[in-house]
Design brief:
With 589 residues, the chain is of the alpha+beta class. The protein is built from 18 helices and 19 strands. Strands 7, 8, 9, 10, 11, 12, 13, 14 and 17 form a nine-stranded antiparallel sheet that branches. A four-stranded antiparallel sheet has the order 1-2-3-4. A two-stranded antiparallel sheet has the order 5-6.
Length: 589
């Protein structure tokens, strides 16, 4: 198959932009003169490949203004002046760095003098984009990708002529270019991601249900004495020097789990308020509970153990994402009573008090401590000690705060007393996060679309109907409409009815289950370089993530103002044609 000449591809690009995106077409600059090109070659001391000269003779890049045509993620084409400026900048940054001379190792550098940056990347800066190599040999004229936080690499395009031919094909046939689809919207060229996910992802929770709870294992191995480490971060040389400090036998850190106390309720009621998974309820000691953390049976859900001290029930968190520092959890635990949580995360230990769903900030206490597991070595080296508490200050603060609970609330509890005791325990289905304050503000623009203007000119009832139609399409795209609870909610929305959403109703449980699936999938997916990919793939994770996001958009439609929900729904739409569909939805019936 013959590849069109650069001039032919630019003629096709010009024609499409003039017809469909005239504002973007107007941003193309006139041709560069041969004198300008030759001056750039002298300044950079390289000969430009013939394809680049031909392209610059069609257009000297683009005007870097709103609406400028861009090559998807690779940014706008550079003009002669941009090429000189960007290439000089990258040469200066890479000055003094070693360069491989072997032709096969052309990419084994930060930046090579024979490379020319020919686009300005996502941020329209010289930090990333496409480059052409002017280096003599078989790679001359080849197109590479440069990004300042990654190693340079060659693209599948062997020349700029191939890039421009694919760009013209993408415009004329709405084909994908660099993973994105071109659209003409209000006279401007835009790019959208064409998203698709697998229809039936592997379920981490189904794998957990099919797995047996692991048998009791041997006690965990003791932490090593003091292990060698390298210099502190930010060392001048960046060379790891291993050192060993004198042998000592540190005391193991005390058991200091996150713990919450709820007044006047029995442990069984506390477990219920924590949304324990019924099939996982059974007695376990602390070691047994913590052995569950990495097993498929747990699926990365939190595990707690419950007991009683005086007139308080308490729960200790043994594994999983922290729960007792979450206001959403404490609000539910304290309904009709009060809850006191003592938590420790790294340098911070704190007490939080919540009464009947309302936090009492005046009763809270928070202590932060410095990190103390680094030592200064002879010669100025810094080494990290292993087998010791990094933040002994927060360990001591936890003990002090625990002691204060006896004086302030009559709670006398010692974590070490229940370490070996088999207390009732269970995995949890975590509650949903509250919408944060910034999530409740309307967004003026979504994916380049002027949402504020739409809200301003559209009657509320018509806007609600159009956003509801977009929500239905999102549910179909992500397949969440296959869940009975979601389908029922969408039908009520279609009829203009209010959709109830309360804690532990079927729709709430479905949303939380999808959140648990996504969280577990995110922990289980292995990096691509691992030999054993594990039971889940990145495609499985992507499918669960879009489902969770779609149900959160549904939740926003139910609980937040329509303009706010509209932004969340439109942001999640998978079809690149959502703008056209929205325009149709806004037409009066």
């Amino acid at each position: 198959m013959s590849i069109p000449a650069v001039e032919e591809s630019w003629a096709r690009i010009d024609l499409w932009l003039a017809r469909h995106a005239p504002l973007s077409h107007a941003r193309l600059r006139p041709p560069a003169s041969m004198e300008e090109i030759e001056a750039a070659e002298r300044a950079l001391q390289v000969d430009f490949p013939a394809d680049l000269v031909a392209s610059l003779r069609c257009h000297d890049g683009v005007e870097l203004q709103e609406g400028a045509p861009v090559l998807a993620y690779y940014g706008p084409p550079s003009g002669v002046a941009d090429i000189v400026r960007s290439t000089t900048f990258l040469r200066d940054v890479g000055a003094g760095m070693a360069e491989a001379e072997d032709e096969e190792e052309e990419l084994a550098v930060f930046w090579r003098r024979e490379w020319l940056l020919i686009t300005l990347g996502i941020g329209w800066q010289s930090s990333d984009g496409l480059f052409l190599t002017c280096r003599a040999g078989p790679n001359r004229g080849r197109v590479g990708r440069y990004f300042d936080e990654d190693a340079p690499s060659f693209t599948p395009w062997p020349s700029l002529r191939h890039v421009l031919a694919d760009f013209a094909d993408a415009l004329e046939n709405s084909r994908m270019f660099n993973g994105r689809v071109p659209l003409a919207v209000d006279g401007v060229l835009l790019w959208e991601d064409e998203v698709s996910v697998i229809p039936d992802p592997v379920s981490p929770l189904a794998l957990a249900a099919a797995a047996a709870e692991p048998e009791q294992g041997p006690p965990a191995a003791a932490a090593p004495d003091i292990a060698p480490t390298g210099p502190a971060y930010g060392g001048a040389t960046g060379i790891v020097a291993f050192v060993r400090i004198a042998h000592i036998h540190p005391q193991p850190p005390p058991d200091q789990p996150d713990v919450v106390f709820v007044e006047g309720v029995p442990p069984a009621e506390l477990l219920c308020r924590l949304d324990a998974v019924p099939a996982t309820v059974r007695p376990r000691n602390r070691q047994r509970a913590r052995q569950m953390a990495d097993s498929p049976w747990a699926a990365y859900r939190p595990l707690v153990r419950v007991g009683a001290v005086g007139g308080w029930a308490y729960a200790t968190q043994e594994t999983g994402a922290a729960q007792f520092s979450r206001p959403e959890v404490l609000r539910l635990l304290s309904v009709g009573t009060r809850a006191v949580a003592l938590t420790k995360r790294g340098p911070e230990a704190c007490v939080t008090v919540t009464a009947d769903g309302a936090e009492r900030p005046e009763a809270a206490r928070r202590v932060r401590s410095p990190r103390e597991d680094y030592v200064q070595m002879p010669g100025g080296q810094t080494a990290r000690r292993h087998g010791v508490e990094p933040w002994p200050g927060s360990t001591a603060a936890y003990a002090r705060l625990l002691s204060d609970l006896a004086e302030d609330f009559g709670i006398t509890y010692r974590p070490e007393d229940d370490t070996a005791t088999e207390l009732t325990s269970a995995l949890l289905l975590p509650v949903l996060d509250d919408f944060r304050e910034y999530e409740c503000r309307p967004a003026p623009r979504v994916r380049g679309f002027d949402l504020a203007e739409l809200v301003e000119r559209t009657p509320p009832d018509r806007l609600r109907g159009a956003v509801a139609a977009q929500l239905v399409r999102l549910a179909a795209e992500t397949r969440v409409d296959t869940y009975e609870e979601v389908a029922a909610a969408l039908e009520r929305i279609r009829r203009g009815e209010t959709v109830p959403l309360t804690h532990d109703d079927p729709l709430d449980v479905r949303m939380r289950t999808l959140a648990a699936e996504t969280w577990a999938a995110r922990q289980m997916v292995q990096p691509a370089w691992r030999r054993d990919p594990g039971p889940l793939t990145q495609q499985d994770l992507s499918a669960w993530a879009v489902r969770e996001n779609a149900t959160q958009a549904l939740r926003a439609f139910i609980q937040l103002p329509i303009p706010v929900a509209a932004a969340k729904i439109l942001h999640q739409r998978m079809s690149v044609h959502w703008r056209t569909e929205l325009a149709a939805d806004l037409v009066e019936p």
